[in-house]
Amino acid sequence: MNANQTPSEQLKGRICLVTGANSGIGKETALGLARRGASVLAVCRDRSKGEVAVSEIKKASGSKSVSLFTADLTQMSEMHTLQADIREKYGQLHVLVNNAGAIFGERKTSEDGVELTFATNHLNYFIMSHLFLDLLKKGAHECKQPSRIVNVASEAHRQIRSETIDWQFENSDYKPMFVYGLSKLANILFTRELALRLNPAEIATNCLHPGVVRTGFGTQNDWGFLGVLFNAARPLFLTPEKGARTSLYLAAELEGAKTHGAYFKNCREAKPSQLAFNEKMAKNLWETSVRLTGLGG
Description:
Blueprint: E1 15-19, H1 24-35, E2 39-44, H2 47-61, E3 66-70, H3 76-89, E4 95-98, H4 116-131, H5 133-143, E5 147-152, H6 176-197, E6 203-209, H7 225-233, H8 240-243, H9 245-252, E7 263-265, E8 268-270, H10 279-293
Parallel strand pairs: 1-2, 1-4, 2-3, 4-5, 5-6, 6-7
Antiparallel strand pairs: 7-8
């Protein structure tokens, strides 16, 4: 933040999009950006929950510049529609926080036929980032500062300890936490690969571990005994406000644009697992994503 700016002016004139903004880390990230003066585009899947969240964010931040957009980010067509709507209404973007994510107790597929964890936690990030690249570049040129792509990953990626390219678990046993861990490894591999393809003077691209946060995440009924254990430990987790701190650091602070393709914890750059540097996995993930989405080729 500039020494002459008040906190509410830090992001004045900036347009920031946050996915999964109706609760948890996403809602706190949207609130933090609104408090810093940004125009916040809150993307939620459920309109009624989104309307409540936006109303609460406006009240808590004192900002009227918080807008709700609804989209199911497991569906490619809805992400394209979302991008067209935002392009028409705003014409540029300065921050994209890819935050929406999920874990499922059994293997399911999206309407596009993609394994649902992979669709939600990785392809969502891949598609949103590519669809908004031109608006982010325009935003950077307009404000003469790099725009930001912030991808919420997780330390859960460390449980993946051997090279694999079975991203959709078509030939592997489906174990929910393992599937989730692979999707979070994909977030880091994607962030690093995207950073290689972008000019950091236009768009700074980084990812982060938010901490183990007390949110609605993991409360699905199909978790079984694992869900019981997860919910029993929930009181020990971080608050969503604390969980959003690193997302806000990368999205809003000047220092957040000085690194590119990095992994962060507690607002500091950290070293991910060795597999996060695996070029073969990164290449295959990118090629798989291009084949499934038609983007990024």
